[in-house]
From TrEMBL, chain A:
Phylogenetic classification of the source organism: Bacteria, Bacillati, Actinomycetota, Actinomycetes, Pseudonocardiales
Organism, as annotated: Saccharothrix australiensis
Domain Peptidase M16 N-terminal span(s) in chain numbering: 86-192
Domain of life per record: Bacteria
UniProt protein name: Putative Zn-dependent peptidase
Coiled-coil segments on the chain, per record: none
Region (Disordered): 1-24
Automatic annotation (TrEMBL), chain B:
Species this protein is from: Saccharothrix australiensis
Keyword Protease in record: yes
Name the UniProt record assigns to this protein: Putative Zn-dependent peptidase
Listed SUPFAM superfamilies: LuxS/MPP-like metallohydrolase
GO biological process, one term: proteolysis
One Pfam family named in its UniProt record: Peptidase_M16_C
A GO molecular function held by the record: metal ion binding
Family matches, as PANTHER family: NARDILYSIN, PROTEIN YHJJ
Entry-linked InterPro entries: Metalloenz_LuxS/M16 (IPR011249), Pept_M16_N (IPR011765), Peptidase_M16 (IPR050626), Peptidase_M16_C (IPR007863)
Peptidase M16 C-terminal domain location: 172-353
Stretches assigned to the Peptidase M16 N-terminal domain: 16-132
Keyword tags: Hydrolase, Metalloprotease, Protease, Zinc
Length: 462, 437
């Protein structure tokens, strides 16, 4: 390399006269300031959680409307397609505002407001300078109570959605996710995260209006406000804006999922792929289960953070992957443990072997005290840093609220983590991380992968 | 808006330090920015700056391989690093009790990283997987940040693939790493930033304690990467094996963000007028009126605004349906730029962009990771961490005439146009820089 003519060798660089130095101890940790908060339900059934965090003069707003398909099966159901068109057009017009008016009014208060939908919920996410809270809430009110779904907006967004679905389905992680959901949950509506293009193309404006009237409901929904605003004042502002949002019945929650049972991994062919997506899944625990904190720590030790057995093995020791991780996904009244890794075709089978080895080892050679302590401190610290911004806290709280939980779960969780014993982690590891508890999919070039996967076993080939 | 206080000092070994105390949450951010990015890589060593970034996590005199990760995470913290055209950053965000530990960890690898053959080979494999994940196996991978520079620029530093060519990566040696470290990772070539919950005097003492005895080394003179703007429209095509739809990227040269910051910021406002929000010019025209693109975006810098020194890029990208030609998209963009150049934006359009920027900056400051990294890169690139806090006012001062002038300067006869064709579509593969295997 054409760097300077003289430089130290790597060995000289890695050595000083003084030699290695001791790692400093941790200092005294200051507690987070108590958050002032209100958690209440308005007369129309909308739950409102307001939290004051005044680090910057902004406010974050999250609205979660349960939006499950009332049908038990996605076969023959057009719910996903109608919901997708609704989410993409709900902010494109009301009696008093055009799409451009919405954007302009929000922009002038430094604000944004978006709507997205998935099989479980319709979610509005917004923010603004705190002086713009009333504007954001008024735009939200206008959309919730008076979205007109202008015909030309519906038509254009429908056409655009068809293209965006095509784009999304070209992404390897989306291909893998859809295959996994189908493999785990079959035709349960939870598995249908994205409608088919022809289903979207068939959605009419009347379909969307009807869905809005029957499903965009305050009862069962929750709105979270976090920012530089007194909680009582925030609740009054929400009540003033959204008190008139009414409707018959309650927003529909998705029905519980079939339990994930262990079994073979399904190989999905993606011709020409130079890398494979390994996606394994097993049963997890809801956040309120007394064993959840132990399972959370067991998951971290397995693959839930960088200093985990899986990452140290298949990335830092063997160089099979750039990204490997395991994480819980909370589902209606349940939870799933997910293990993800992307690996070059040549080492895919070897990476699957090592992943299964680490699953087995977690139960049989349970996490040591030092592994548990590292994971425990990470869990407590990362909860603190992830929720130290207004946006991070708002998103965390609305997700908790979707599970029926409130801020007291959040503030009480560090103590629950602190109380977990090494034995409890070992029990959770053995019960939940057994290789026999997992199934999954593997997306890659089947022609390249088949000989090794056939030899490895536990994989159904196409 | 109230400006948070900033303290800065320089250690005798040349390390520049920025302290930004904020007691609102009991967490701290620590970052080190080194003044070397992939523009400094020599020919034959594409991707080296980024590969080296990986090696800085692989152990030091005091810490075994993997210990860095464990110590940050067992302190409740998170970490990462990233390589940019003009700098490489490393950061940790942790509960404030771990401040001294974080400083120790950064100082230890600045003083004496352990670079071994085994770790180098392992991280070459990991980086190749990163490139497969983000470029080779993914539709639109590297579009436009890897694919546009070789069309717009002529010189190796500006034009080459910063992720690197597999052959170059495999040829990297431990001695290359030693030379790179000795040249570019001198304390005088770095900025240390500490933001969050701490007392400035106490933090200063800890910085001196841990970084004070990192020996000074000569700091390399930074070469100019300047090159003349194109004298004509430069065009290239690229075939993407995985992309389902065609796309187009247009790249233009913009003023030097260091010496002409106001001129540069006019383009930042222009980008907002063009593509920020449903009411913006190109969203209205291309997505909603003509309905010829799925998505369109415009911005300064291929990594974001104020992320590089001169020469930097203004870029406009769009993914469009196969029945629409890239020329139709480019022509529509040119029409909108011409209209802006002649009539200028309205005052309300500028007010929208400014208000959203004020809000965006607050939001970035509220995330400790972004605030720490933003202060550090502003101090390193511009010598002024406070630029971060001054941006909203500076953007608000940009006039409609300045935005019109910026639009006028985005000339068809001095730009690069990169056309991305899906596999199976016609088109030569004139600039396939997506890496090799």
């Amino acid at each position: 390399m054409s760097a300077p003519t003289t430089h130290r060798s790597a060995e000289e660089i890695g050595r000083t006269a003084l030699g290695p130095r001791p790692l400093p101890e941790l200092g005294e940790q200051r507690a987070a300031a108590d958050l002032s908060t209100v958690d209440t339900v308005l007369a129309n059934g909308l739950r409102v959680i307001a939290v004051r965090r005044s680090s910057v003069p902004l406010v974050e707003v999250r609205l979660r409307v349960p939006f499950g398909d009332p049908a038990a099966s996605s076969v023959g159901s057009t719910h996903a397609a109608r919901a997708e068109v609704l989410a993409n057009t709900v902010l494109t017009g009301t009696a008093s505002r055009s799409r451009v008016d919405v954007d302009t009014e929000l922009a002038l208060v430094g604000g944004e407001l978006d709507a997205v939908v998935d099989p479980e919920r319709l979610a509005f996410s917004g923010n603004a300078l705190v002086s713009g809270l009333d504007t954001v809430l008024d735009v939200l009110r206008d959309a919730l109570t008076g979205a007109t779904y202008p015909a030309e907006e519906v038509e254009r967004e429908r056409a655009r959605l068809v293209e965006r679905i095509r784009l999304a389905r070209s992404q390897p992680n989306v291909i893998a996710r859809e295959a996994l959901q189908r493999h785990l949950y079959g035709d349960h509506p939870f598995a249908k995260e994205m409608p088919e293009a022809d289903e979207v193309a068939a959605v009419t404006r009347d379909d969307v209006l009807a869905l809005h009237a029957s499903a965009v409901l305050p009862r069962g929904s929750v709105l979270v406000v976090v920012g530089d605003v007194e909680p009582d004042a925030a609740v009054r502002a929400v009540e003033g804006a959204l008190g008139g949002w009414t409707g018959e019945g309650a927003a529909v929650s998705l029905s519980p999922l079939p339990v994930v049972e262990g079994g073979d991994v399904l190989l999905v062919h993606r011709p020409g792929a130079v890398q494979s997506q390994i996606r394994l899944a097993g049963r997890g625990l809801v956040r309120t289960d007394p064993r959840y904190p132990a399972l959370q720590i067991a998951n971290l030790v397995f693959g839930g953070f960088f200093s985990s057995r899986l990452v140290e093995n298949i990335r830092e020791d063997k160089g099979y992957t750039y990204s490997a991780r395991s994480h819980p996904e909370f589902t209606p009244e349940g939870a799933t443990l997910l293990v993800d890794a992307d690996t070059a075709s040549e080492v895919t089978a070897a990476a699957l072997l090592e992943t299964r080895y680490e699953l087995g080892r977690l139960g049989l050679v349970p996490p040591s005290e030092s592994e548990v302590d590292t994971a425990r401190r990470y869990a407590i610290g990362s909860l603190l840093t992830a929720t130290s911004s207004q946006g991070g806290l708002a998103s965390f709280l609305v997700n908790l609220a979707g599970l029926g939980l409130g801020i007291e779960w959040f503030t009480g969780h560090p103590d629950r983590l602190a109380a977990v014993t090494v034995e409890q982690v070992a029990e959770a590891a053995l019960e939940f991380f057994a290789p026999s508890s997992f199934t999954g999919v593997l997306v890659g070039d089947a022609e390249l992968l088949a000989p090794q996967l056939r030899a490895l076993g536990g994989v159904s080939l196409p | 808006m109230a400006l948070p206080e900033l303290h800065r000092f320089t250690l005798p070994n040349g390390l520049r330090v920025v302290l930004a105390p904020d007691p609102s949450a009991p967490v701290v951010g620590v970052s080190v920015h080194y003044d070397v990015g992939f523009r400094s890589e020599p020919e034959g060593r594409t991707g080296f700056a980024h590969l080296f970034e990986h090696l800085m996590f692989q152990g030091s005199e005091s810490l075994e391989k993997l210990a860095h990760f464990r110590h940050v995470q067992s302190s409740g913290g998170t970490f990462n690093g990233s390589t940019h055209p003009d700098y490489t950053d490393y950061y940790q965000v942790l509960p404030s009790a771990a401040l001294e530990r974080a400083l120790f960890l950064e100082a230890d690898r600045m003083r004496a990283p352990k670079i071994t053959e085994e770790n180098l080979r392992n991280q070459i494999d990991v980086v190749k997987e990163e490139i497969r994940l983000n470029v080779l196996n993914r539709p639109y991978g590297g579009f436009p940040w890897i694919l546009l520079p070789p069309v717009l620029f002529r010189t190796f530093p500006n034009a080459h693939n910063g992720y690197g060519d597999f052959t170059d990566l495999e040829n990297a040696t431990v001695d290359d790493c030693a030379a790179f470290f000795d040249t570019y990772y001198a304390p005088g070539n770095a900025v240390l930033t500490v933001a969050g919950d701490f007392q400035p005097e106490a933090a200063k003492a800890l910085v001196e304690k841990h970084f004070g005895d990192v020996p000074a080394r000569p700091v390399p003179e930074r070469p100019s990467f300047a090159e003349a703007p194109p004298k004509g429209e430069l065009r290239a095509e690229h075939t993407d094996q995985h992309a389902p739809m065609p796309a187009v990227a247009m790249g233009y040269r913009i003023p030097d963000p260091v010496n002409e910051v106001e001129g540069y910021l006019a383009y930042l406002v222009l980008a907002g007028v063009l593509t920020d929000g449903d009411g913006s010019r190109l969203q209205q025209r291309l997505v909603h009126r003509d309905a010829i693109v799925v998505d369109v975006g415009a911005g300064c810098g291929l990594f974001g605004p104020l992320e590089a020194r001169d020469p930097d890029t203004f870029n406009i990208t769009a993914i469009h349906a196969p029945e629409v030609t890239s020329d139709q998209v480019v022509a529509a963009v040119d029409e909108e730029l011409l209209r802006l150049a002649e009539e200028g934006p309205t005052e309300q359009e500028l007010a929208k962009v400014t208000a959203r920027w004020v809000s965006t900056m607050h939001r970035e400051h509220d995330r400790l990771t972004s605030r720490t990294l933003g202060l550090g890169s502003a101090e390193l690139l511009f010598g002024r961490a406070e630029l971060l806090y001054e941006l909203p006012d500076k953007l608000a001062a940009i006039t409609t005439d300045e935005v019109a002038a910026a639009a006028k300067a985005l000339r068809p006869d001095s730009r690069a146009v990169l056309v991305l064709n899906p596999a199976g579509a016609a088109g030569d593969d004139a600039s396939d820089n997506g890496g090799t295997e």
